[in-house]
């Protein structure tokens, strides 16, 4: 099942209590694409980079079977750069610097051969750009959207308009409270699902994730990791694994949605074990299935 | 299976964003005893109250089948009083007033007919008093202990000495980090289990609970409630339901421990739906089994 991924690509400088990593390939679409690439051979990436995006970066994506024909390379421009420092508890971070560079003028153009993609994943970018993507694709079976507080606060109306065309919406608990205006997550979920997305996933970081559908609520635990080196990209990686499993399953029902949440959680748990995409870009399918099994075991009760 | 419960009894004045409740019967042992009373007919309560502890309070306990012969009633004294106000998010509260009264001189005396109790539950009181209780009982099959940051900071050595004689230790995530000195819960669990308790439960409030045993980790979700009126006693109620199920099951293994965590979570989810012990004192077994089933469904994946 073909997956179109649209979002940001960036070079990140990341500092955590465990060390630092500079010039590491990042960006929402990078994490989503890498994560979903373990489940599908048809990952089509659309984004914009500068001429500092080198062969080894393209190679990293190609080695994971990601189609980069949709990447716009701006010859005289620089790729989006972001740098941050995580606090001791790793749950909070300070953005030290943001240089949008070529990303400031990003105008997603979906190549003809991408427009028939069955699944469309809109990474965390301006909701107006997300809308532009939806205007170019020919009715996909599934549209997944991710966002962040920056857009919820900055472009709430544009976001809500875009949400009307979204099937599955992924955001974290504080963003859900912000968008709904209600501190209670169950009430928030009802309010947000009324904005359009029938399926809603609220990520709770180290506390797992909640899946809301017409058939009820699914609570996925977080994997109790002994060491978290870098949380960067965990949310996008979750989305990629979630989406990837659905594409692999080829059908969407409550059982597959619940499994997809665990696969997304499994991928995210790998992501944070090393800096940037280091771990994510070098996984074996067997590791993924093992981690998925550990997630099942975490909440299993033998009868 | 007989259960000895030792802890505090109090009258609470509670204020939450949803209203207030004054002079409501509370205290750790009250919540533990009421919660476990739905699973066992042999709940034996030891604590101290003043002559302001009236017939209707005894009646409430007796109506739930709780044996109160172990309650010391101090004729010229007043019962422990505590008043608090919860913040908007209900996750934090301010203690407005604490009057220990007769509880200040509490010296637990275990009646002869209680000393053979199979299970002993030490509610959140001074670890030195918890030790005094263990000195009076004749080798119980199971000792469960609850505590709080007040004792972890105030009497760490006494607490650690007592923990050496404990089978199951229940505390919350911030207390676990405080006691272990490690922010990571998996590492905290290993450090704390090395202090004595083979089985450890770390409560995470609205995020569920983690069970650590020699056989691995179990992650229990929290029930996504639409309205939480009063979190007071939820932790003690959890302990009571957990303990109660184990007593009812009559055997202790990983499966029963995992089920017990869900029954404890189910009881806690009822507790917070009304003020004080109001809901907890008036439940039907069927409701409890239904709520338990909803907890199972929360993390179930059909195959």
Automatic annotation (TrEMBL), chains A, B:
One of its GO terms (cellular component) is cytosol. This is Sugar kinase. PANTHER family: RIBOKINASE, SUGAR KINASE. It comes from the Bacteria. Gene3D superfamilies: 3.40.1190.20. InterPro entries: Carboh/pur_kinase_PfkB_CS, PfkB_dom, Ribokinase-like. The keyword Magnesium does not apply. The keyword Coiled coil does not apply. SUPFAM superfamilies: Ribokinase-like. Keywords: Kinase, Transferase. Residues 23-278 form the Carbohydrate kinase PfkB domain. It comes from Prosthecochloris marina. One of its GO terms (molecular function) is kinase activity.
